[in-house]
Every structure is written in C-alpha cells, then in structure tokens.
Specification:
The structure holds 2 protein chains of 2 kinds. Chain A has 2 domains: 180 residues, no CATH class; 278 residues, no CATH class. Chain A is an all-alpha fold. Chain A has 21 helices and no strands. In chain A, helix 2 packs across helix 3, helix 3 runs parallel beside helix 5 and helix 10 packs across helix 20. Chain B is 53% helix and 14% strand. Classes of the chains: A mainly alpha, B alpha/beta.
Chain lengths: 495, 378
C-alpha cells in the first residue's frame, strides 16, 4: 500500500484506533492481520511469499537454537540463507543475469540467447530486499547467540511483516523490535501526536517536495546528452539528490511515525545527510539501518572483525576501527560497496554507484591529509563531500551506465561550464526553475537545519511555540492536499 | 510544551490547513488555467461555426474539420486550410458574439462572392514540426486542401520536440508522405518511433512497481472519487495548484526582471533547422497536391523589440525565409505590424501580451489574408 494515499491515511487511522481498543494480548494478532491486509492491497498472493519466508526463518532459528552440534546449527543457517537469498536472487536478478549471460554468449560467438523468449514474467515482490535482510539478520543473530528465538510465531510474523516497515524499511534487528511487539504498550498522547506529526512531515517531504522535483529531474535526465552543459548535469544531480532524499526519508518518516502511533519507537533512518563533512560521515547519516546492516552482516565478517548488534551508526563506524590487514580491509570495503550497489537494483549503473562510493571512501582513507583536513575545516569538508555525493547520484538516476559516464565526462570538461541554452532561452519555465531550485535547495537545507538546531535547544514559551506549530502544520496540510492524488510510487519501493 | 497542548496544536493546524485549502478551492473555481498562458483577459475559443459548419478546432478534432472541408468541396468551394498557434483561437477582452479571424475571413469571402472557404486548426505554441503533423492528419482524413495558409510565429520556433498528442495515430500518414515529404517527414517518423518506444516501455509487462491494476489502485480511485464528490476544493486541487504556480511565476518574474523587463531569447540553431525542414516538407507535399501555399509573418505588438529577441538574428531568419519562399514559389506576406498596439492585451505578470489581440485584430488579419487570396483569384 502506498503511504502517500488516502487509502493509507484511512488504514492508519483505523489501524491505530482498533489497535489501542484491543486488549494487549490480541494486539500482536491484529498487527499480523493488518500487515497481511496492507501487503495484500498490492497483490495478495505475494503476501504468502512473505509468510513462507517468515516460516522458514522461524523454524531455522528454532532449530539453530536447539541444535547441540555446530554442524546442525550451520546446516540450518545455510538452509535459511539459501531460501532467503534464493528468493531474492530469483525475483530480483533473474532478468539481469539472463541479459548478461545472453550478452556474454553473444560476445563469445556462442549465438545470441533471447531471454524474452523464455516465457519468464517475473514480478518483483514489493519490499523483498528489505524483509529478506530483516529475516536473514534474525537467523544470523540467533546463530551468533545475540538473540534468543521467539517461540510465538505471530510475534515473529509481526516483526517480519510489521506494516510500517514492511515495504522499504527501516531494516531493524529482531532484538530491537520483538521485545516492543511482545511487551505491554501503554496508550500515550505523546506517542500519538509525535507519530502523527512525523507522518505529516513524511507526507510533506514526499508529496510536496519529492514529487514536485520529480518533473524537473525527469526533464534533465531525458535530455539528449549533447544538449546538456556541465552546469545542467550539476543541476540534474542536485535536484535528484533532494528528490531521493525527500522521497526516501519521507517514507521513513511515515514508517517511523506510524509505528510511533502504535507505541513502537524506531531509530532514525536519516540524519541530515547533506550536511555530512566527509563521505564517511555521509554514510553515518544516510539510510542508516541499511548501512548498519551491511556493516554487521557483510563488511565486518569479511574483515574478520567483531560485529555490532544494533541498526544504528551506519557503515562508517566500522571504518573507524583500527587497521588490521589493510589490503583485506580495503578489498572487503570495495566488495561491500559493489554488493550494496547491486542491492539497490539489478543494473550495472547501481554497481557503478556502489563502486564510486567505495572508491571515494578508500581514497579518503588513503590520502590521510585530505581526511584530516575535512575534520579540521568542516566547511571545506562539507563542500567537498556535497560535490562528491551529488555527483554520485548521477549513475543512480541515469538510464544507463553509458549515460552516466557521458554525464560524468561533461562534469570533467572545463569547456562545458556554461549556462544551458534552455535556461537562457526559456527563462523561468521548467529549466529556469530547475536552476533556481538547484541553487536554493542546499541553501534552504542549511538554513532550516540551523533554525531547527537553534530552536530545539531552547525551551520556547508556549505563547510562541503553539502558534508556530499551528502555522507549520496548517501550511504543510494545505500543500499536501494540493499535491495529493498523483499516485507517485516511492523510489525505494523498487529495491 | 506538554503533549496535550502539542496534540491540540497539531489538530488545530491540520484543521486550519483544511480551511485554507477550502478557501483556496473557492478562489480556484473562478480561475481559468488557460487564461494566464494566453495573457490577462484573453479567452481561448475552442470551436467556431460559419454557416452551420465547424471551421475552427483543436488538432484533436482534425478529422471532424476535414469532413466539413470535404463537404465544402462537394459544394464547389475551395478550401483554405489555415494552420497556426494560439493567436488564431484567442481573443483578448472577449465579449459574447465576437468572432475569430477564420469566421471573419469566411464572411468576407462569402460577401465578395469568392469561392474560397477557410478552416482552421491551431494549437498553442505550435512549431512547424507540429504544423506538419496537423497537415498530415488532415490529409489522412481524406481531404486535400486547395490552399494552405501557414502562420509563421518566430516565437514558437524555439519550441523543441513534438507533443505526443500531435503524432498519435499518424503512422500511416507519415509512411505515405515519406517519399514526397523529405527530411522533415523523416524526422517526424523518428520522433514518432521514439515516442512509441517510450509508450511501449511504459506499457510493457512491469517488473517493478506494479501498483497499477491492484486492489490498492481500485480503493484509491474509489476514495479519491468519493472525496472529490464530497469536497469541491479537493476536486479542484489541480486548478488551485495551477493558479498558485501561475501567480508564483508572475511574482518571480516581477522580482527577477522587473515589471516590464524583457529577457533576450534566442532560437537555437538546431531547433530552427528542424522547423525549417518541417516547413520544407509541408511545401513539398502541398506542391505535390497542387496546393498553393501562403506563409505570413504573424502580427505582433508594434513597438516591441521583435518579441524581445536578438533583432539581427530575427532579421537574418526573415531574410532567409524570403529567399527560400521566392525560390520555392511560396507566397510570403509580412503582417507583423498589421494590428495596432492598443489592440493587444497584457500578460499575468504585468507585461504587454505580444501575440494575442482583440476582435479588431482578428478582423484585420482576416481582411489581409482574404485580400491576399482574392488577389490570387480565389
């Protein structure tokens, strides 16, 4: 179910109401039922797939916990991983693998293989990348002895399918969520209003900002490369950077707010990422639950260093750990980033995006003075990081690797740094607006962040805070209502 | 602040937002989204009748216009197909009973006993590539005009590309015109294929984000329809959005360039070349059909610095057009100064409207065009 829809708002209000009216022992059953309904509003048959995945992990984790011998425990772990990753690879990467095998066969002179003739019609189940990672973390945590398996299947199912996080995270650990689902939650006005406020903020980010920018982003990325200047490429990158941030963090806000209205607190998934002062800092602030997952289940195991057990901190925490086996650590980092890129989508452009970030982090590690300079002069670090991160979004949004590389080439050509013909010609139509917004957005972010930090630290009198809250909520409501009904899907739904 | 008070502030804010939205909806109900694009107090006339026949329409109604034109030809009339942009269908300070140039031209032709009758197809900001598409669509409907009148709006030559609506269902006509139309038709074929590819990709079995045709979409459509029925402001949200954007753009323009400031605009060479190819194709096809062609430089508000363009570039363009028309046997008329400045309106951002005039302008344009045709014996 789309969060930015009238249907979801009704679903949320009804769900929250029923949840708090029910006796505590029935709430977890209600969450399961509501979550299955939530997922089935997309395609009911695929909700069975999620339940199947949950059953496999529930049984595997129980067997691992009960298993006396290491071999048995490992066998159940391998079973769980094989099923989960098998489903993920089948649904998400079959076309990608087939297309690449076909291209390779053709290049080797083995004749062209046409995957379209295989009769495959694979639909990518919504949220499979997210709930698969969540269930994998559960089984591995039980195997590692970090978490005890729950004996109550409905509670486990509620953890896997909990509707606020089912489609696009945050990816949370069983140890963080299951106690909250199983424990007694008391109704609190504080949770309700804070959750609703967060939902409102998320809707604003998605419906007003992200969807508003989408048209401009599409305009620039659909232009023939030859018609673009380097300034246009920067404009496209900056606009997309803000679109994807508001899109995904808006989704996370609605997820976190919805859970909070049910009395469950999730950690933040974003922390003002475009104010990062180094690439490493950026990955402490962007999609924190994913990068923390990657840290604990991929990167740290590859480097042979101790893992952590929470979905906060991001991947950068690991980068700060002491050096041991430099080459292994660096290769692990690069490999991790390539996989992280591929996780985002079955296309080489995402691998390019992952590789780009991996190389940047390695570069900062390798050039010590650069790393130290960004720490000593944060403004310089912020400027450099912002440029790097913005440029990094090009392969993510481009239609192909070829388009991304040609756009990068524009950025590296000094002669291409001039205003677009579209802008000099059309003044304030879509191209002109894009230029204006690309300039204003980073500025507004910094101003907003400064205001937010200043106000949060002060205990404002109610006579000031109350009207301010009413005015902000009112303005957001008007703008959301004006933007509703576009049926725009969240970008991260495709992952 | 206590959570009770915070909750109150939140609910009060949402309620206030709802009320503001409602008020905005009421204001938007009086807003015509077309008007600001055409200039203040300018009205788009969607269709017009002369002697009981529809003689002016949007390109989507080309087939209907072609049927009317064929009927005229069967009655022994000569049909002059008049193609252009919004100047042809917009009247500033419109009052009941005022008529477009095409009606005036028909009345004048009938009054002088001429055989010619005018039918018009126009679309806002139509460039020559789109005009070629209108022309081919007209021919596809089975009618070959006796005269072709093309409004040359230099301003519209900077428009890139072709709107998808202009090329839909035109593949047969494009194929048929391939041999005679030359490079302009070839370019349209490429554009049509590119657009078809894009549409095919959108319609292809979706591997990701298949929200369409799901229970959620059914539910959302039902809820949206119910909300729109129950709350007129919600139903008119897109108009309200358009109103805010338009007013915002006007304010932005005023802030950036001043009330009467003009921005120098150039027509990119590649775009001008594409339009020239399309014009050449129109003339080639017309000559094959033995249809005489009249190209006229569209009137624009006298005293304006040539639509705020680079005058040298504009003069060079016009000189090139004159040479080309002379070589191709195409009649070219410069009607740029035809309509007095006081007959033009103003734009929503407070500047003079360079293109859209009052009914007097339509009458003057009709007289000029019909005179030109009458001189040619039509």
């Amino acid at each position: 179910m789309l969060f930015n829809s009238l249907g979801y708002l009704l679903f949320l209000l009804a769900g929250v109401g029923i949840h708090w009216l029910l006796p505590h022992r029935l709430r977890v059953y209600f969450i399961c039922l509501a979550s299955v309904t939530f997922y089935a509003m997309w395609r009911w048959e695929f909700s069975l797939l999620v339940v199947f995945s949950a059953v496999v992990d529930y049984v595997s984790a129980a067997r691992i916990h009960a298993g006396a011998r290491r071999g048995v425990r490992r066998a159940w772990l391998v079973t769980s991983l094989t099923v989960n990753l098998g489903l993920l690879v089948f649904f998400k990467y079959t076309y990608f693998i087939a297309e690449n095998v076909s291209a390779l066969a053709s290049r080797l002179g083995l004749g062209a293989i046409d995957p379209s003739g295989w009769g495959l019609k694979i639909i990518l189940p919504l949220g499979i990348s997210f709930y698969t990672f969540q269930t994998i973390s559960y089984t591995i945590d039980v195997y590692r002895g970090v978490t005890r398996p729950t004996r109550h299947f409905p509670t486990f199912l509620a953890y896997v399918m909990f509707w606020p996080q089912l489609i696009a995270g945050p990816i949370l650990r069983a140890g963080e969520v299951i106690p909250l689902l199983a424990g007694t939650r008391r109704f609190g006005l504080d949770d309700l209003q804070a959750g609703f406020w967060r939902v409102l903020c998320g809707l604003f980010k998605k419906a007003v900002v992200a969807d508003g920018l989408a048209r401009m982003v599409e305009y620039w990325f659909d232009q023939p490369i030859g018609a673009l200047t380097a300034v246009d490429v920067w404009v496209a990158a900056v606009l997309f950077a803000f679109q994807i941030y508001c899109d995904f963090s808006g989704y996370s806000d609605i997820a976190i707010g919805s859970a909070r209205m049910l009395g469950i607190r999730f950690p933040d998934n974003f922390n003002w990422p475009y104010l990062a002062v180094s690439p490493r800092d950026f990955w402490r602030r962007w999609h924190i639950s994913l990068s923390s997952w990657i840290r604990d289940y991929l990167y740290l195991p590859l480097t042979g260093r101790p893992f952590q057990t929470h979905s906060t901190g991001g991947i950068a925490v690991a980068a700060e750990a002491g050096p041991r086996g430099l080459r292994r650590r660096d290769l692990a980092l690069l490999g991790t980033w390539l996989i992280m890129g591929l996780w985002h989508g079955a296309a080489w452009k995402f691998v390019l995006w992952g590789g780009y970030h991996g190389l940047i982090v390695l570069l900062f590690r390798a050039i010590g003075p650069l790393d130290r300079l960004t720490q000593r002069v944060p403004v310089l670090g912020w400027a450099l990081t912002t440029l790097i991160v913005m440029a990094g979004w090009i392969p993510f949004r481009a239609h192909s690797v070829a388009q991304a590389t040609r756009m990068f080439a524009k950025l590296l050509s000094p002669g291409q740094y001039r205003l677009s013909e579209a802008v000099t010609g059309l003044s304030v139509r879509i191209a002109g607006y894009s230029y204006l917004w690309a300039f204003l957005l980073p500025l507004l972010t910094v101003i907003l962040f400064g205001l937010w930090r200043t106000l949060r630290g002060r205990n404002l009198p109610a006579a000031v805070e109350l009207p301010a809250r009413v005015a902000i909520a009112g303005a957001m409501t008007v703008l959301i209502l004006l933007s509703m009904g576009a049926k725009e899907v969240f970008i991260y739904f495709q992952f | 602040m206590r959570s009770g008070l915070q909750a109150f502030a939140l609910l009060a804010g949402v309620a206030l937002g709802g009320m503001l939205f409602h008020a905005l909806g009421r204001a938007a109900a009086r807003f015509d989204p077309q008007s600001p694009g055409l200039g203040l107090e300018t009205t788009a006339v969607s269709s017009s009748l002369f002697a009981g026949r529809v003689v002016s329409a949007h390109p989507q109604a080309t087939a209907a216009i072609a049927v009317e034109a064929r009927a005229m030809q069967r009655e022994g009339r000569e049909v002059a197909l008049w193609l252009g942009a919004s100047q042809l269908h917009a009247i500033n300070n419109f009052s009941e009973g005022e008529r477009l140039a095409v009606i005036h031209a028909n009345a004048r032709a009938a009054g002088r006993g001429g055989a010619v009758r005018y039918v018009q197809i126009s679309q806002a900001n139509a460039n020559f590539r789109e005009v070629l598409a209108f022309y081919l669509r007209f021919r596809q409907a089975g009618t070959v005009p006796d005269r072709l009148i093309l409004a040359l709006a230099y301003d519209d030559l900077r428009e890139r590309g072709v709107r998808s609506g202009a090329l839909g269902g035109l593949s047969d006509a494009l194929r048929a015109a391939r041999g005679i139309g030359g490079a302009g038709v070839e370019a349209l074929i490429v554009e049509a294929e590119r657009q078809a590819d894009g549409q095919a990709a959108a319609k292809a079995p979706v591997k990701r984000n298949p929200i369409a045709h799901t229970p959620q979409e059914t539910l959302e459509d039902a809820l949206t329809a119910a909300a729109e029925r129950a709350w007129p402001a919600y139903r008119g949200r897109s108009v309200a959005r358009a109103m805010l954007e338009t007013e915002g753009r006007a304010a932005l323009l005023r802030a950036m360039y001043g009330r009467s400031g003009r921005i120098r605009i150039d027509v990119p060479e590649d775009v001008a070349a594409q339009n020239r190819l399309a014009l050449e194709s129109i003339v080639r096809i017309a000559h094959t059909d033995r249809t005489a062609v009249l190209v006229y430089v569209q009137p624009y508000r006298p005293g304006e610095e040539c639509f705020w363009y680079d005058r040298d570039a504009y003069e060079a363009f016009l000189a090139g057009m004159r040479r080309w028309c002379a070589a191709e046997g195409v009649q070219l008329a410069d009607l740029a100064d035809l309509v007095p400045a006081d007959q033009y309106g103003y734009t929503s951002d407070g500047r003079s409207d360079v293109f859209h005039f009052r009914e007097t302008g339509h009458r003057l344009l009709a007289e000029a065009i019909d005179r030109l045709l009458a001189e040619g014996g039509h």
